[in-house]
Amino acid sequence: MTRVQPESRAFMRCQLVYVNDSQQVQIESLKALIAEHKLPILLETEQSIEKLTQKRRQQLSQISTQPILLLDDKNALSWLSNGLSVAPEWDKLQRRVVSAGRKSELLLQAVKITSDSRVIDATAGFGHDSLILASMGAQVVMLEQQPLMALLLLVEQQRMSKVANWQKLMSRLQIINTDALSYFASVNSSPISESNRAVDVVYLDPMFPEDSYQDSKTGKGAKVGKHMQALHQLALPPTSEEEQQLLQNALAVVGHHEQTSGRVVVKRPQFAPQLAHQPPSECWHNEAVRFDGYFV
Ligand SMILES: C[S@@+](CC[C@H](N)C(=O)[O-])C[C@H]1O[C@@H](n2cnc3c(N)ncnc32)[C@H](O)[C@@H]1O
Questions:
Q1: Which of 16, 155, 223, 282 has its CA at 20 to 30 Å from residue 49's CA atom?
Q2: Taking a C-beta distance cutoff of 8 angstroms, is the pair 136, 100 a contact?
Q3: Quick check: CB of 129 below 6 Å from ligand 1?
Q4: Binding residues for S-adenosyl-L-methionine, per the UniProt record (predicted)?
């Protein structure tokens, strides 16, 4: 098992395994996306002579010392993590996105946004929560620190932008490969203007220790899906100091504009401790997750 080390702007080598020659066009477009967004990724391409069966995927995962991206025979890009192929797969959320509202989505009850809202999803991951946020018509800036994840998000946005009924939603998402703290610092140091509108909500869904999804006494809680399992290979939970900084700086971002009230919403597994041990102003939960809201 290869654990990808958390990193700053150091270039990350990544193996891209593809299956046929006709995929050179996709490979070039992937390289162009990496260059356009200045992602610190060095792609090393390799054509697979064997079919990408489950067994082959397991083998590839075991022998490689670098993260692996797969371009399969349907031209779908995925990241191979521990033998499992994972990708944002936003089309699979279509039903949820179409019917999303405060009744069906606890997240939307917690963020209380409208189509005029400006939201930062500071820990974008696979972008699933960003889609729910953008389904309300809000503009969502998606921050993702891991270049590989940012690349998967950009590729997915490009792919879904070609689907007619996804275009408007896609145009409301802005994906940035950065650490949230640096982004917050740049927002907090710029005056509010036409181009730097006030932020209404900062949403944080940082990593949790792998054992915090279940109650230690009752064993109740959420099962860890394959997307989260994969993310645990790529990103570490924040230290307590980083938790403090994330929350404080996020609160400064939503409090930056004195005339409006803002909030920071933090997603936690239902039984996990509060971020930075800070009690929230209000909290929403179901049997799996909890959203802690901090109002400014
Ligand atoms: C639990 S996942 C988020 C899942 C996401 N809410 C979704 O719907 O797919 C956390 C993600 O945030 C990213 N992340 C963690 N800390 C970050 C930070 N300080 N700045 C930017 N991204 C961060 C991690 O790399 C990981 O991809």
A1: 155
A2: yes
A3: yes
A4: 205
Is 5's pLDDT higher than 50?
A: no
What confidence tens digit (pLDDT) does each residue in 217-249 have?
666 656 678 888 888 888 889 999 999 999 999
Mutation choice for ligand 1 from 135, 144, 226, CB with most ligand atoms inside 8 A: 144
85-116 pLDDT, tens digit each: 999 999 999 999 999 999 999 999 999 999 99
With a 6 A CB cut-off, is 85 part of the ligand 1 pocket? no
The burial class, CB within 10 Å (0-12 / 13-18 / 19+), for 258 is exposed
Question: What is this structure's pTM?
Answer: 0.93
Among 83-97, 203-217, 274-288, the least confident range: 203-217
Q: Residues forming the annotated binding site for S-adenosyl-L-methionine?
A: 205
The Å distance, Cα 143 to ligand 1 centre, comes to 8
